[in-house]
Amino acid sequence: MEKVGVIGGGQMGSQIAALAAMAGYETHIYDNDVENLKSKIKFTEDNLKNLIDKGRYEKSKLDNFKQYLKTSETVDEAIKNKSFVIEAVVERLDVKLEIFENISSKLDEKVVLATNSSFIPASELAKSCEHPSRFINMHFFYPPIRMDLVEISYPKETNKETIERTQNLGKDMGRTVITCKKETPGFIVNRMLAALTDEAYKLYDEGIADFKDIDIAIKKGLNHPLGPFELSDYSGLDIHYYAKLKIFNETNDPKDYPKEFLEEKVKKGELGVKSGKGFYDYS
Ligand SMILES: NC(=O)c1ccc[n+]([C@@H]2O[C@H](COP(=O)([O-])OP(=O)(O)OC[C@H]3O[C@@H](n4cnc5c(N)ncnc54)[C@H](O)[C@@H]3O)[C@@H](O)[C@H]2O)c1
Predict the structure, then answer these.
(1) I need a surface site. Which of 20, 34, 134, 219 has the fewest CB within 10 A?
(2) CA of 215 relative to ligand 1 center, distance in Å
(3) How many Å apart are CA 233 and CA 220, to the nearest integer?
């Protein structure tokens, strides 16, 4: 049975850790913002109770959540004696690299090192770390305790055991797992979503329609449950901004630079649902 360490307890990490604990895995989670971590765990517990009331989960999942999920005060404590570490910190290559360089030298080659990053491939994180064969992308969707899918992707150096253990952990967490055969930024879902979101941002930027009308058009015309602007608010505008910036830094093509309205919102701290305001107001 894996022992799971989660680094980063924001909106994703807190619920990924919850899923591991709910599946009966001993789980520790660390975040350098203690107050945020506390509130995210409380939020997850409330959500889980709600889902149990609706019959989506057995009551035993809440018992497991309480019994197996522990918070840690340091990274070292969270990874101690663990066989599987999942990183879910902010989407910044420098921050993630610092974490993996630190932990990869402390954990033996059997410990799987997974990242929940939406756009950074495991190969980029493995490059400067020890034992690259244990690196993998394990990509959940927001909110992980409600969204069924996990996408797995891996560089050619990753060994078979790492892939199989990641698939098994995802399935034990009750998720449907799909595995990409090659690395690609955004995997399947975000690569397709990016095309839709880019076009929605372009329509708004060109003044063709208000963002609310674009959302309505996509919901009513394509039967999507959320419009692209609502979805951006839910996943976090900073995630979109940094993902776009990363692409721009690689291509140097001005067309890839994040739209001005997005940059302004991120600079103002209007990051979507998590900050109370994004395109829409949640206060
Ligand atoms: N939000 C989504 O829809 C979504 C979906 C799939 C994957 N992801 C990926 O998950 C990761 C986290 O995204 P999120 O939405 O949870 O962001 P978030 O902003 O809610 O959480 C990020 C957390 O990282 C913590 N953190 C930052 N630096 C740290 C460090 N050095 N050590 C420990 N903790 C640190 C922050 O305190 C924060 O709590 C990103 O890589 C993102 O690409 C996000």
Answers:
(1) 34
(2) 26
(3) 19
Q: How many domains does the chain have?
A: 2
Taking the centre of ligand 1 as the mean of its atom positions, its distance from the CA of residue 89, in whole angstroms, is: 4
* Residue 19 and residue 123 share a domain: yes
Q: Are residues 212 and 120 in the same domain?
A: no
Euclidean distance between the first and final Cα of the chain, in Å? 42
189-205 vs 260-268: helix axis angle to the nearest 10?
Answer: 100
The alpha carbon of residue 225 and the mean position of all alpha carbons in its chain are separated, in whole angstroms, by 20
Per residue in 224-281, pLDDT tens?
Answer: 999 999 999 998 999 889 888 988 998 999 999 999 999 999 999 999 999 999 999 9
DSSP letter at 137 equals E
Specify the length of the chain in residues.
Answer: 283
In the numeric block, which tokens belong to residue 204? Answer: 């708004």
Residue ranges making up the domain that contains 246: 189-275
Instruction: List, for residues 102-131, the tens digit of each pLDDT value.
Output: 999 999 999 999 999 988 999 999 998 999
Determine, yes or no, domain membership for 249.
yes
One domain for residues 231 and 111: no
Ligand 1 atom 18, closest CA: 10
Which residue among 15, 36, 90, 140 has the greatest number of ligand 1 atoms within 8 angstroms of its CB, and so is best to mutate?
90
Tens of pLDDT, residues 143-199: 999 999 999 999 999 999 999 999 999 999 999 999 999 999 789 998 899 899 999
Probe target for ligand 1 pocket from 239, 266, 274, 275, with the most ligand atoms within 8 Å of CB: 239
